[in-house]
Amino acid sequence: MAKTQGSKTGTKQLAITLVRSFIGRPGKHKKVVAGLGLRKISQTVIRQDTPQTRGMIHKISHLLEVKEIS
What CATH number does the domain containing 31 carry? Predict the structure, then answer.
């Protein structure tokens, strides 16, 4: 995978928005939401595009909206 221009460090960033509630979800899903720094619906956080972040997003993708920031 080729590295593209993004932030000053040369890595891309992701804007991650919580669009669905995590109430009633398994405990692991709640921990992933907290690990991403999300607390309430419609909150958006900016995270580096790393394999770890992508793995967290994949686990709860049904609750999130993700956009790449250049």
Answer: 3.30.1390.20
